[in-house]
Amino acid sequence: MDHLPMIAALSERFGDGLTAALIGLVTGVLFGAAAQRSAFCLRAATVEFARRQMGPRMAVWLLSFSSAAVWVQAAALSGLFAPNEARMLAVTGSISGAVLGGLIFGAGMVLSRGCPGRLLVLAATGNLRSILSGLLFAVTAQMALHGWLAGARGEMAAWWVTPDGRNVNLLTALGLPRGSGLALGLMVALLALYIARRNRIGPRPLIFGAGVGVVVALGYFMTYSLAQVAFDPVSVSSVTFTGPSANTLMAMLAPFEGWGFDIGLIPGVFIGSFVAAAIAGELHVQTFENAGQTRRAMLGAVMMGFGGMLAGGCSIGNGISGSSIFALTAWVALPSMFIGGALTDLLIDQPREGVRRPARP
């Protein structure tokens, strides 16, 4: 592979850990810019779904999802990436954690008005609500990983796990032919474009929405390439926010333990979002509207921190990165997040906002 000598040279000069952090930084910058310009958000897509409105947010999310699946599976078919070496597939998966954590996370993202990735993007533009929610999310994720909530998380995750010490690759487990994942991604892309055309969405959000998926594939490709030449073990992963947020928080508060992809990703997303918003003239300070909104956001952030760690990833870690490699737990967690979010909107937000559901024909 022509790119391996370049990555090997970077690794030899800077070390494996710092090279992984640089890859995370570049991945984060590109993701932050694409997410900011496309307004990519699972929470917004879930609310549209709950209100029977297959609108622009659903189109953008589906296009991001399909783009990741297409590019990741294309890389796998061409031999540029081996999905089974990705961190999510290389470790035991928790099905009970995916279900319960997904439901909790989905409810939390509706209460806080954004998933962790969206909160970080908004924080970079001056949204104070997102800054507070993001910090609470990271603190809770760290507590669920190594702190007071770790015992409860571990107990719930152990109720139902995948066999043989590994997650399950759905394409392999179902005996599907090569190219099935790529074909599914293309079909979802056609659905996304149909919804976009029906809603008369311009090209910009669609291009940047597809870019979100491309960046996820790039993250996998670069970390996998580094793992092939690194002297020390390197985790093959891509964009996610639960673990990286917790790790980045501890890197700022505790003695530094070493560089890695996670440490570069979070600052990269912030920088990319900030630059994209500055170029578009969309930097402005926003704050909470009232005390009730503050309480909602804080509760939602805590729920996302615990739920995301229990589910093994956030709406992007499971919903885009994990789903694109067809990890079983990701495909269980994603609909659980949709259900948790949709029920929260149906039972809390719609009655509060006086939303009338369309009459059945």
Summed up, the helix count is: 17
Give the oligomer, counting copies of the same chain as homo and different chains as hetero: single chain
The average pLDDT score comes to 92
Poorly predicted regions: none
DSSP strand tally:
0
- How far is it from the N-terminal to the C-terminal residue, by CA? 57 Å
Decide which structural class fits the backbone: mainly alpha
Biggest sheet overview: none
Roughly how many Å is the radius of gyration?
19 Å
Q: Provide the domain count.
A: 1
Shape: globular
Helix content: over 70%
Beta content:
under 5%
Order of helices and strands: HHHHHHHHHHHHHHHHH
Account of the 3D structure:
With 361 residues, the chain is mainly α. 72% of the residues lie in helices and 0% in strands. The chain has one domain (17-341). The chain has helices spanning 4-14, 16-38, 42-50, 56-77, 87-90, 95-111, 116-124, 128-146, 150-157, 170-173, 180-198, 203-229, 242-253, 261-280, 291-311, 317-324, 328-353. Helix 2 runs antiparallel to helix 12 (203-229). It is globular, with a radius of gyration of 19 Å.
Task: Give me a quick take on this structure.
The chain crosses the membrane at residues 20-40, 60-82, 88-111, 170-194, 206-227, 263-285, 297-320, 326-348. The chain has one domain (17-341).
